Amino acid sequence: MASNRWEWFHRWGSPKWYYQKSSVWTPWLAVLSVVLLGTGLVWGLAFAPEDVKQGNSYRIIFLHVPAAFLALAGYYIMAIAGAIGLIWRMKLSFIAMRAAAPLGALLTFISLFTGAVWGKPTWGTYWVWDARITSMLILFFLYLGVIVLTDAFVRKDSGDKAGAILALVGTVNIPIIYKSVDWWNSLHQPATIKLTSAPSMDASMWYPLLLCILGMYAFYFFLLLRSIRTRVVEQDKSKAWVKEIL
Amino acid sequence: MYFDSFAEFINMGGHGPYVWAAYGVTFVSFVIYLAAQRRARKEVERKIRNRIRRELNR
To answer: Most buried residue, A38, A104, A128, B13, by most Cβ within 10 Å?
Structure first.
């Protein structure tokens, strides 16, 4: 059993194996994200009812919440990939960490932007220095920090290690983001969706939101796997398997 | 369809500019990211192909 697990682990670390497997997965993820996001967004924009308090501005939720989910999940992925790279010196893991940084920054930007244009009609302002919003801005700078730091070294493995350490240190920000709406008085509304209780939202709004969240997960992994594929080919540029596929 | 007309759908009861700005910027961001990803991929492939060609000519 244990030996099987190690075999699996080593295969996972093999760039060639990753490249072959991911060429099967990425088309499915593409189909899944188009179907789920397409259905969810059209449903949310055109068919879901208006919110009693917020009017139609609440329709931004169908982008804002999925983007924020993935901005946070993407940080876990980046930090865990960095940790695995540090502990087991797995190159593929550092590649995943490097690929997750710009993608996470993009999703954090989208959640900040969609939040700002939702804030204007709802709170009367695009921006407040509120705990939730400020900690999300810090998340954005942490992603940028990892991008800059990994590229700041001549030796690639020094950049890998420095980036991974910053990513791990930055994880202290994650529980702050989650708890910010409970710990501080905030303009930001508390979580609509909790694992421990039913969503505080009507089914006619909750179903399209669920589709959008699942779709955004699929789209995130589609983009991440594709980015890793390019980086894997670049890393193994002198290997025989790369010459074969080109 | 929740809205009575297409014009109402675009207007979103006055919230149209906010909603469409959110959707537009998100869409454009993803398109830019996908284009950058594609360009990076092509660039890596081009470099490797050039190197293989040089090795073959030597």
So the answer is: A104
